[in-house]
Fold this sequence. Notes:
With 303 residues, this protein is of the alpha/beta class. The chain has a single domain, classed as TIM Barrel (Alpha-Beta Barrel), CATH 3.20.20. Helices cover 40% and strands 19% of the residues. It is built from 10 helices and 11 strands. The chain has helices at 15-27, 52-62, 80-94, 108-113, 121-138, 177-186, 200-220, 245-257, 276-280, 287-296, and strands spanning 4-8, 32-37, 67-74, 98-103, 143-147, 152-157, 170-173, 189-193, 229-233, 262-267, 284-285. The protein has an 8-stranded parallel beta barrel with strand order 1-2-3-4-7-8-9-10, surrounded by 6 helices. Strands 5-6 form a two-stranded antiparallel ribbon. The longest helix is centred in the last third of the chain and has 21 residues, at 200-220.
Amino acid sequence: MSLSFGATIIQFVPYRALLDDFLFAESIGLDNGWVIDQFWIDGAPDVPMLEAWATLGAVAADTERIRLGSMVTNVANRNPGILAKSILTVDQVSGGRVDVGVGGGYYQAEHEALGLDYLDARGRGDRLREAVAILDEALRGTTVTHSGTHYQLKEAAFRPGPTQSPRPPLWVAAQSARSLRVAARHADAVVSLGEYERGIEESLAVFRARMERLDEICLEEGRDPGTLQRCYFAGWANEPIFASTDATTDLIGRYADAGATDFTFYLHNPAEPVLDDFLSSHRMATRDQFEDTAREVFPHFRS
């Protein structure tokens, strides 16, 4: 099985420096370049943060091959109809290179700062389910009517339609059974984060159990589990990913054995030191480390 690899490139540097990171990722043969979609860095609100989908539109015009997307967009922050319009625009600008990562929202302080309801886990899961159902239709260029608890759309026509067929791929961040079921019903890929600050043994065990539960849910929903990609979003768990190429190889191999088909790793930009502790703990890669990994490690996992 061939695996795919991407870089999570946080947009807290000026655009030209950010674009240079994307061009670097493209030059070393990465499959995906992702921005995060947060209003600010949690605990560091004074660190500048470019808006995700406006940034992706600009990067789409300035790159040629690498796929682009959000890792991940909080559906509470945007009406899904407006979000779908943004996505379809970036899809056209990029020539069909956009992937759509969405999740139910995690950071309570960000919700409160923006005047958004921070729902309990069940409520966030239900809001995610509605938003993803709308996106699944809207991104196909259809006319959508939806009357739900969280969103209402009335004959909303999504034109122009997608560049990709049948629509840009949907990647749903899912940690719980409720969001895993949303992914099984609608998504092309599921995104799973490592267990925050936990070591590899604990994080890997949780990931494996989550993928096994996802397989069960897919079968319950009448879906072949093999049709759903599984992305491991590395860097959240306390895993020394980039301590050496052997460490990187070991981590990829173990998560692939547990079901991962795609990986995304943080790329460090020295212009913004707020996440230097991620670099010192080997959870984030410098350019040199990423380039070495792309040359020495990734080819072993690509058929």
